Amino acid sequence: MEDDILTIEEVAKYLRVSDRTVYDWAQKGEIPAGKIGTVWRFKKSEVENWVNARLSSDTTKQAQIQVQVRNVLSPERVIFINHTTKHDALVELAQVLATAPQVKNEQELTTEILKREELMSTAIGRGIAIPHVRLSSVTDLVMAVGICKKPLEDFQTIDDEKVNLLFMIAAAYNQHSYYLKTISHFSAKLKKNDLRQAMTQAATEKEVYDLLLKA
């Protein structure tokens, strides 16, 4: 990316998309580009300005979006977890989250969730952890919820309370504003002790989902 004139391959690498995607954008005039003979070429400064304009637009749209449970969670992505370790619980929940069509790479999701947890605990107290990542292989924000039937003791918590509620969030790389808003939304909802108790005492996954819809 040091040269002012870039190839399709260089732009694809920079934007973390396929060569074909960049080619289609160029053909449709969606990205600033020019042809030298039959070969597409791109000015680095124009590509950077185009990216910044798109990110700004996306951020504005995301800031206006209200967090709706039904838009990010479905009943089949609410599960009861019987594992006793953080690692195993996170892996199982990541596998469930990866069933969402918005997640294109299960292995990357699992790997990055575990890396994020190693870097800093996502436990926020009150028995809650919100493991979260943003990835280029995720097309839109999506979530899975795990109710731990055996509270997890190996999370580093700020209040020494064992974790029994896991809210796992994966978002697209450019969804920073919406991503933060979603984490904040559920953090606030879960401050209610009656909601947390009802979730941990629920008999079915559907009951947990319905509780979150009404919260």
Describe this structure in words.
By secondary structure, the protein is an alpha/beta fold. The N and C termini lie far apart (about 50 Å). The longest helix is centred in the N-terminal third of the chain and has 21 residues. Strands 4, 5, 6, 7, 8 and 9 form a 6-stranded mixed β-sheet that branches. Strands 1-3-2 form a 3-stranded antiparallel β-sheet. It is elongated and about 65 Å long. Helix 1 crosses helix 2. The model has no long low-confidence stretch (mean pLDDT about 90). The chain is built from 9 helices and 9 strands. About 30% of the residues are buried.
Which range does the strand content fall in? 15-25%
Oligomeric state of the chains present here: single chain
The count of β-strands is 9
Order of helical and strand elements: EHHEEHHEHHEEEEEHHH
Number of separate helices:
9
N- to C-terminal distance: 48 Å
The gyration radius over C-alpha positions equals 20 Å
User: Given the C-alpha coordinates, what overall shape results?
Assistant: elongated
Q: Could you say which structural class the secondary elements and strand pairing correspond to?
A: alpha/beta
Give the biggest sheet: 6 strands, mixed
Percent helix range: 40-55%
If you average the pLDDT, what whole number results?
89
Stretches where pLDDT is under 50 for at least 5 consecutive residues are none
Give the helix/strand layout.
Elements: E1 5-6, H1 8-15, H2 19-28, E2 34-36, E3 39-43, H3 44-64, H4 69-72, E4 78-81, H5 86-97, H6 106-119, E5 123-125, E6 128-129, E7 132-135, E8 142-152, E9 163-172, H7 176-189, H8 193-201, H9 205-214
Parallel strand pairs: 4-8, 6-9, 7-9
Antiparallel strand pairs: 1-3, 2-3, 5-6, 8-9
Helix pairs in contact: 1-2, 3-7, 5-6, 8-9
